[in-house]
Peptide-N4-(N-acetyl-beta-glucosaminyl)asparagine amidase (Orbilia ellipsospora), 412 residues
Amino acid sequence: MSPSHPFHPSSSSSSSSSSSNHLRPPSTPRPIQRVNSAPTSSANLPPPYVAVRPVPRQPQAPSDSASTQFRNFLVGLSETPVKYENPGLLDNALSVIPLDQIYGEAEEEHMLFKAQAQSLGHFKEEWGYQDCVIRALLRWFKRVFFTWVDCPICPNCRTKTELQGLTPPNQDEIVRGATRTELYKCPKPECQRHERFPRYSDVWALLEARRGRCGEWANCFSMLCRAVGGRVRWVWNSEDHVWTEVYSEHQQRWVHVDACEEAWDQPRLYTEGWGKRIGYCIAFSHDGGAADVTRRYVRNPRLHGMPRTRCPEEVLLYIIDEIKGKRRNSLSDSDKKRLMREDMMEEQEFKEYVAAVLAAEVGAGAAAHLDLQPPSEAEKRPRETGRGEWTRMRGEDGYIGPANRPGGRGGP
Ligand SMILES: [Zn+2]
């Protein structure tokens, strides 16, 4: 099957929805100025958003060494999803996915969404068939396919091993794209066996290894989404997490997906569930290039933002434009226009989040006009993957400890 292998044929009824009938038309201009019509007593007003984080105006080329370093780092990261665009790789990926099961589950769930919409008198179901395919893939990936590794189990006596430190990858591991290898030792006196845990960034190797931590999970899952025909972004976060975004044609927007947590469309999970503070979330895709999607994940920078000190905001804008240009230059004019339209719709979505937070801080009265929704129960949960001690150290157990204060360390 080709990499652009379309979704299951039965999706045709819902997958082509494009303009007038989606649930939440993002193109509708929202009355953001309503914020100003809220009570005007200046004591009640939060600082304007620009004071919280200056909005960049003109892109500026990096001119100092820190900015140049950050630019090179982001340009390097932007290659990650480009590596998925390999027909051999995607065919190989399709061969490990139980497609019949995934499509069957997706069809069933889509029917449920349709029935639910009908019973509620809604014109359109919440999620389309394509979305249900990714949701089914997510369940299978988390529950069956991939394994989380803290300390590997000793293959000799099934005891949990202990970390000894890093060791250079051996020849076989290097060939398979390991960038570093962790060395573990079985604590049982009569065993003492050493176990290696090579950290692969190469998706071919991950298809075979099927284990790792968030880096491996997000990388492999993003590629599998691509294999079943989804439009995919790989999202890097400056506080040491990565995840996926998938474009929902049905809702005409990018949807947050975290394979480690089996989380679908729960962008506030990290800040409001894990209690993390976040500086940058940058999304990369093979055709769109790059996007600063931080505002999707950090709704209130005052409560959940980390200082953004890697480079001036104007420089970040320049770097993102540079990566966009690199990926989009070879596209057709109509594809370029489509991506620009999506950029504008996403910017509108982000502005609504900012406005909603400002309104909420002014008072519930103003928020009512802005469709402000509290985080869902699912978004308020602490981290699932990883040991308690490990998540606590990283400040991801929902406790706002030192690791989550500005200047605190998110963990390795
Ligand atoms: Zn052992």
